[in-house]
Amino acid sequence: MSLIKQIQVTFDCAEPERVARFWCEVLGYVVPPAPEGFATWADYDRSLPPERQGAGFVCMDPTGAGPRMYFQRVPEGKVVKNRVHLDVRAGTGLVGEERVARLEAEGARLVALGATRLQLLRADEYNESCLLMQDIEGNEFCLD
């Protein structure tokens, strides 16, 4: 019998809170409440040893349906293409130019948040159109 497991998506990054707040805006996610005994995440962060302050940040789907996302500070920068990436389903159910228009509109919204638009991949006989993007630290993702 298979057990259903929850997943967490973890990003390595230089500025966890900044990247987490970007993805909150992209996905409609929220920052969870601060740990018990702390009024804010900043209060909690100040309680940590200096080397752990700012080392991680979380965002989550407010409905609980999507995966929790964890952002952890690492010393090295991004060097090569991601082996795993997120597909943000902005054009689900749409085809042709209507789909492209929806992807471009969402891409423009995300560029205003600091994302980078890389390339529109037009539909072929196997796949619908998608828009390749990068987040504010260069991690690739697709609007599809």
Features:
144 residues; four-stranded mixed beta sheet; 2 domains; 24% helix; elongated; three-stranded mixed beta sheet; alpha/beta
Q: What report would you give on this structure?
A:
The structure is a single chain. With 144 residues, the protein is α/β, with parallel strands linked by helices. It has 2 domains: 8-73, no CATH class; 86-143, no CATH class. The chain has 3 helices and 7 strands. The longest helix has 17 residues, at 96-112. The two termini are 33 Å apart.
Largest sheet, spatial ordering of strands: 4-7-6-5
Major β-sheet annotation:
4 strands, mixed
Terminal residue distance: 33 Å
Structural shape? elongated
How many domains?
2
Which percent band covers the strand fraction? 15-25%
Radius of gyration: 17 Å
The overall average pLDDT, rounded, is 93
Helix/strand order? EHHEEEHEEE
Spans of at least 5 consecutive residues with low confidence: none
Quaternary: single chain
Q: How many beta strands in the DSSP annotation?
A: 7
Q: Which structural class is indicated by helix and strand composition?
A: alpha/beta
Number of helices: 3
Please bin the fraction of helical residues: 10-25%
List the helices and strands and how they pair.
Layout: E1 8-13, H1 16-27, H2 41-46, E2 56-59, E3 68-73, E4 86-88, H3 96-112, E5 116-121, E6 130-134, E7 140-143
Parallel strand pairs: 1-3, 4-7
Antiparallel strand pairs: 2-3, 5-6, 6-7
